[in-house]
Specification:
The chain has one domain. The protein has 7 helices and 7 strands. It has a 7-stranded mixed sheet with strand order 1-7-6-5-4-3-2. A hairpin with a 3-residue loop joins strand 3 and strand 4. The longest helix has 15 residues.
Length: about 220
């Protein structure tokens, strides 16, 4: 990998070539392996009360996130914030932030990764949505992340440790990022259907529930 140019870039500017240059590999896992659970937790066993104001707001932001529009990206962010709150990702000591920058050092320069939505604890960032890459001076831990296309998620886990800094900087050690793409009932329509069909929604919300324990 030594002959491949590794420019200093902000996280949002990375391309597939940069992942190759820095020897980052994404490995997709099934639900049981990724979530470290033999079965996803059941959700939505009872009908949704659409008269509840919070439920209405969540479903309305879902509609906006799925609707073709020049402002769709901001609508997806709004939906992610409402969804994290509804599923208990935020509570006392945790808040949802939008457009937060994460500084990281790369190729002798200070750069930053921009998250569309982050779950921020009292002392650190716990979960990020739409993060292409990040590098933090933390003790060994799992950094969870989600990339959303409209309202459909891909879940990621990055093992972050002090050694990761040198590994990425030199590209000599392969960095593994584990990912899970939920298998929905109608694969050809995964992105267009998103969370609107109830069977899709049950499965995806179960994935979010299982993913929460990594925070």
């Amino acid at each position: 990998m030594a002959h491949i140019t590794r420019p200093a870039k902000s996280g949002s500017d990375w391309t597939q070539n940069d992942f190759v240059a820095y020897n980052v590999k994404v490995v997709y896992q099934n639900a049981g392996t990724f979530f470290q659970s033999p079965a996803l937790p059941p959700l939505l066993s009872s009908p949704i009360d659409t008269h509840d104001e919070d439920v209405y707001a969540l479903l309305r932001t879902l509609d906006l996130a799925m609707a073709p529009s020049p402002s769709r990206e901001s609508a997806v962010d709004d939906f992610a914030v409402d969804l994290f709150r509804a599923l208990g990702y935020t509570r006392r000591g945790r808040v949802a932030r939008t457009r937060k920058y994460i500084p990281f050092f790369i190729c002798g320069e200070q750069r930053r990764a921009k998250t569309d939505v982050s779950i921020v604890g009292d002392t650190n960032i716990l979960n990020t949505t739409r993060v292409r890459t990040l590098e933090l001076p933390l003790d060994s831990k799992i950094m969870p992340g989600i990339i959303m296309k409209e309202a459909s998620p891909i879940f990621y886990k990055v093992h972050v440790a002090t050694a990761l800094t040198g590994a990425i900087a030199l590209g000599k050690v392969e960095t593994i990022v584990y990912a899970h793409l939920p298998s929905l009932p109608r694969p050809a329509r995964d992105w267009s259907d998103g969370m609107k069909p109830l069977d899709n929604r049950r499965l995806l919300l179960s994935c979010y529930e299982a993913f929460r324990h990594f925070l």
